[in-house]
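User: Second chain of the day. Same drill as before.
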Amino acid sequence: MATRDTSARPSASHTAYALTKELILSGRLPGGSLISEGEIAERTSLSRTPVREAFLRLAGEDLLELHPKRGAVVVPVSPGEARDVLELRQALEQAAAERIAQQGLPDEDTARLRALIALQHERAGDADVEGFAEADEMFHRGVVDAAGNALSSKFYRTLTDRQRRMSVFALRLRPERLTRLVEEHTALLELLLSGDSAGFATALRSHLGDTHRQT
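Assistant: Same format as last time:
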């Protein structure tokens, strides 16, 4: 008797993990929110056992804080953590710009970054903060990837989850900034194309600081 191949089917715990993580990163479960295993089990039509495994995994990523018999609390991004993330992003993207100034920006990377700016423009027009934050992260990651430093790219990817959460939070407070961000990304790309790494570093610092300023 032939058996069905289920190798490509996600496990129950991964399904619960993916859903819960998306709720957190998209801001639909903001920092401080209390969520129970039962809520996720109901959303995914799963038992509590795989949900418990998913919660443990998310706790290991510092996204959830577990409270026995009560559920879990979404861990907020602390001011200190946000500052650390922005500092690392500035360093990695600035280093990428310096390398790009030396070797040029490949045509395929230029096209990819322009396409992401166009996508941001579309999402800004729809006031889609979650979608914009995702495209924003892809743009900045694309700058680092374009420099061709595999180690920098790998490390930058470890900041992705934190970056997306921070952007969703900041932009929900100031949704009017979406259109301005499109203009700033366009300016950053033009500085890369002109080989002006110093100008890029200055513009990036202002861009990140203005975006994540809470007042």
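Confidence is low (pLDDT under 50) at residues 1-8.

User: Great, on to the next one.
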